[in-house]
């Protein structure tokens, strides 16, 4: 019975040692076998692997592509127009052994801190070599590729691969926005004032041309009316002269009627005259002066 117990205990110990020496590496992982903090072996292929129990331990790292958002960074382009830039990077562990030696036990958290510093340096270096208009333009793919290449070269020393870098936002600092908006408003107001001035000038030209046209049309109309009036007066005088030559008595009668019409209006219809005045010749008789001569 005692021997069986010993065998069972030995089997349990062997099983524990066996289980302690086995570990599984998944497809999305890379593993390092460490002994007293030193890298003994690298396991990059998925499957079952072995280690010395209790002496060696295993550290696993995610082999997938990971993302990192940087903190807002203030940069100064060539034209000294400060900008606040937000960027993000996609990265992965390329050399897990070199990565371990570079970051130590800090792991992913330490790596992200180091990558953030590398990205900030690359952003300042690249964006500081161009104007703010290039940064703010829609076509800034070339700048992002330059930032990626610069960060990629620095990250290789950490065993990392920078796959891509993208600028999410590039804006003016908050303290400069009000001044920028005020300047933009002043520029728009100046442009509006210029447009209004040009409009007023054009309107004045139109009004002047219209006034000149009116004066010319009125002058021409008055000239034509004077000509017509003169021709009518001449024709009327000719008719009167012809009528006087043919019948002096009729002309005298017409002139008397015109005198009656002018004298006997509403505002001056009261007259004090002698009844036998020549003014009333044609009121007393249709023969006028001829009737008076017969008398």
Short overview:
The protein is of the alpha+beta class and 295 residues long. It contains 9 helices and 9 strands.
Structure description:
With 295 residues, the chain is α+β, with helices and mostly antiparallel strands. The chain folds into 3 domains: 8-62, no CATH class; 66-172, Tetrahydropterin Synthase, Chain A; 248-295, no CATH class. It contains 9 helices and 9 strands. It has helices spanning 2-21, 96-103, 107-127, 132-136, 141-155, 174-246, 248-263, 281-284, 289-294; strands at 22-25, 29-35, 38-43, 47-50, 56-62, 66-69, 73-75, 83-93, 160-171. Strands 6, 7, 8 and 9 form a 4-stranded antiparallel beta sheet that branches. A 3-stranded antiparallel beta sheet has the order 3-2-5, covered by helices on one side. Helix 3 (107-127) crosses helix 5 (141-155) and helix 6 packs across helix 7.
What portion of the residues fall into strands of 2 or more residues?
15-25%
Number of domains: 3
How large is the radius of gyration? 57 Å
Count of runs of 4 or more consecutive helical residues: 9
Q: Summarize model confidence as the mean pLDDT.
A: 79
N-to-C series of helices and strands: HEEEEEEEEHHHHEHHHH
By CATH's scheme, which homologous superfamily of the largest domain applies?
Answer: Band 7 domain
User: What would you call the shape?
Assistant: rod-shaped
- Give the helix proportion (percent range): 55-70%
Largest sheet: 4 strands, antiparallel
Strand count: 9
Find the CATH topology of the largest domain: Tetrahydropterin Synthase, Chain A
Class by SSE composition: alpha+beta
N-to-C CA distance: 193 Å
* Level-1 CATH class name of the largest domain: Alpha Beta
Low-confidence runs of at least 5 consecutive residues: 290-294
CATH architecture of the largest domain: 2-Layer Sandwich
């Amino acid at each position: 019975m005692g021997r069986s117990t010993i065998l069972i205990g030995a089997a349990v110990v062997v099983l524990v040692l066996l289980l302690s020496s086995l570990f599984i590496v998944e497809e999305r992982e890379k593993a390092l076998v460490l002994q007293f903090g030193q890298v003994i072996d690298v396991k990059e292929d998925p499957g079952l692997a072995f280690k010395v129990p209790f002496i060696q331990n295993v550290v696993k790292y995610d082999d997938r592509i990971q993302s990192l958002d940087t903190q807002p960074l203030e940069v100064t382009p060539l034209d000294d127009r400060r900008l606040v830039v937000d960027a993000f990077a996609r990265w992965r562990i390329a050399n897990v052994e070199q990565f371990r030696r570079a970051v130590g036990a800090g792991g992913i958290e330490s790596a992200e801190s180091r990558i953030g510093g590398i990205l900030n340096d690359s952003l300042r270096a690249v964006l500081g070599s161009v104007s703010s208009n290039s940064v703010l333009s829609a076509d800034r793919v070339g700048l992002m590729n330059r930032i990626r290449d610069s960060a990629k070269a620095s990250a290789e020393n950490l065993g990392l691969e920078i796959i891509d870098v993208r600028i999410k936002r590039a804006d003016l600092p908050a303290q400069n926005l009000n001044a920028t908006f005020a300047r933009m408003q002043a520029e728009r107001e100046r442009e509006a004032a210029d447009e209004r001035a040009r409009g007023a000038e054009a309107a004045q030209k139109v009004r002047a041309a219209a006034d000149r046209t009116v004066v010319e049309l009125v002058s021409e109309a008055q000239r034509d009316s004077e000509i017509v009036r003169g021709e009518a007066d001449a024709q009327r005088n000719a008719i009167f002269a012809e009528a006087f030559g043919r019948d002096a008595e009729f002309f005298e009668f017409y002139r008397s009627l015109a005198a009656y019409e002018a004298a006997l209006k509403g505002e001056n219809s009261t007259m004090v005259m002698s009844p036998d005045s020549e003014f009333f010749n044609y009121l007393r008789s249709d023969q006028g002066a001829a009737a008076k001569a017969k008398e």
